Amino acid sequence: MTDVTRADYAVIACAELFRGAGEIVASPMGFIPALGAKLARLTFAPDLLLTDGEAHLVDRDGVIEGWQPFRKVLDTVVPHGKRHVVMGANQLDREGNQNISAIGPHAKPTKQLLGLRGGPGNTVNHRTSYWVPRHSRRVFVDRVDVVSGVGYAPANSLPYHDVYRVVTNLGVLDFGGPDHAPRLLSTHPGVSVEEVEAATSFPLDTSITEPTRPPTDAEHRLIREVLDPKSLRGQEVP
After folding, report:
1. pTM to 2 decimals?
2. With the CA atoms of 232, 233, 234 and 237 taken in that order, what torsion angle do they form, in degrees rounded to the nearest 10?
3. How many CB atoms lie within 10 A of CB 37?
4. Within the chain, which residues score under 50 in pLDDT?
5. Contact 188, 171 (CB under 8 A)
6. Quick check: is 1 in a domain?
7. Backbone CA torsion sign across 113, 117, 120, 125
8. CATH number at residue 23
């Protein structure tokens, strides 16, 4: 498959976030994470539950499969580890803390962002991953300016806290090293370990780094012909 793109590998990496997940609610934020969740549902994670972001469970075409109002999500799904959200991040640090709130000193930030939003509740109540389409030292910082999503230092004892993985346009990271040290799990084709290290402000454990797995022929066809025939994924990861 000579026509597989970097964006295709990112979709595969996002799909792999849900391998073995079982019957949980997937909440992917971003076009490529959404493609990954739909691909997982169509292939190796048939029990995965997808939502329309409002009050319904849907299939990959948006056909309604069930009713799930927001109150039910907050009462029975979010607090009990039955959800896996893929959020964005303006900053991520070595302890897995996320910032989507503000850049600069908290008392007088230089840039106002989204605010805390659902970051604290997501990260302490169920599995959370992150999607970063532009891997850089501005995103992967030594310490975030504001903790929006809770990383490992203050949350080790919470029963459903699980900062799972970070998928970027360069590769896949997690916090599975000793004392939750950040690790580089894989690099996408054409990306070297050194390139990822240069784009990250904190050290990475690279002892188990391997290439991101390619899509199978069937997965590649689903991505190109069924899920994203207009190749919009290439606008997110050129």
Report:
1. 0.90
2. 140
3. 27
4. none
5. yes
6. no
7. negative
8. 3.40.1080.10
